[in-house]
Amino acid sequence: MCGICGQYNFGNLAPVQRRDIEAMTKTLIHRGPDDEGYYIAGPLGFGFRRLSIIDLAAGHQPMSDWEESVWVVFNGEIYNFPQLRQELEGYGHVFRTKSDTEVIVHGYKQWGDDVLNRLNGMFGLAIWDARQKRLLLARDAFGIKLVYYRIDGDRLYFGSEMRAVRAATSESAEVDPISLNLFLRHRYTPAPHTIMKDVRKLAPGTKLTVQDGSCQLSRWYVFKPVPFERTKSPDEAAEELLELYKRTIRRQLMSDVPVGLLLSGGIDSGLLLALMNLYGSAWSTYTIGYGSSYADDELTEASETARILGSKHTIVRITRSIFEETLPKIVASLEEPIASSSIVPMYFVCERARQDVKVGLVGQGPDELFGGYRRHLGVRYGAPW
Prior knowledge:
Elements: E1 3-9, H1 18-26, E2 35-41, E3 44-50, E4 63-64, E5 70-78, H2 81-90, H3 100-111, H4 115-118, E6 121-129, E7 134-139, E8 148-152, E9 155-159, H5 162-166, H6 177-186, E10 200-201, E11 206-211, E12 214-219, H7 234-252, E13 259-262, H8 267-276, E14 284-289, H9 299-309, E15 312-317, H10 320-333, H11 343-353, E16 359-362, H12 366-370, H13 377-381
Parallel strand pairs: 13-14, 13-16, 14-15
Antiparallel strand pairs: 1-3, 1-9, 2-3, 4-5, 5-6, 6-7, 7-11, 8-9, 8-10, 11-12
């Protein structure tokens, strides 16, 4: 998890003040304790905080090509960057690092905005095309990474967090009543809204381009259904799903730093650990425990999974008093309200895991994908509407 931010005075082209970019970047230090970088050129300024995962020595950002015609700040991870790098080298591009960020630099030079469609991964990024005087902000297809932005007259501010976006202004933040209504209906604030009036966030699969004094918001990702195929047997479908799982995990284990797993007592993270064992052993796993009086405590099941699959297991226990002491800090750390109690155990287990590993895999998503909640039963058994 890195942190990006920046400012572009796209209207009057007034020079960006370095102190403003530094103030924005300072708010992101918790996202990237390993490195800090800046690029300031007239009306444009980029700031960056890095959590080093790939190419620890040479992955400094903001990053450019040799001619400094394209500059990139990027938060996320590109899983197919080795394949893209090989393809780009075939076109004559010369790389200076082994980082996935540089693939975005050269990919933009080769394919323009279409590079976004070639990236397999999660990302929030900004690309400055110095020759065309064009800024591109983009968010990955499924919205795993966030990009917030704020337009104040002819000035654009952006960042990985709202704190960074608002760091260069002294104006008080105001809650957006429309966004508050959306939160109360959906239990989160859907993009492009945020809980603040003057800040917006890119929706998944969208981009914001700024050129010639104007801003244009558009979609870069459009879902294309798979062409008709013959119906697979249950065994064929299971085999294909398993191969997809294996391929995904192998890609996400690419790292130059230690990787661990947040392990619950359920099937999702247990399956991840079993498949991780195909590419390594004795993985570090972490589980939260509340005590026997808590109905949803999965400590027993998680510990048994860890024993069977041979992980180095760490148990994190929290008591009521610890919970009550820490809850205000957890709430204060949130950018926007989230109606999910899982933020509490996630905070504690991540706090412990970060002592050993820099990357933590987690089994979030399969329940939504495969109908793992009780509310999904209505889709199967309910009458069609």
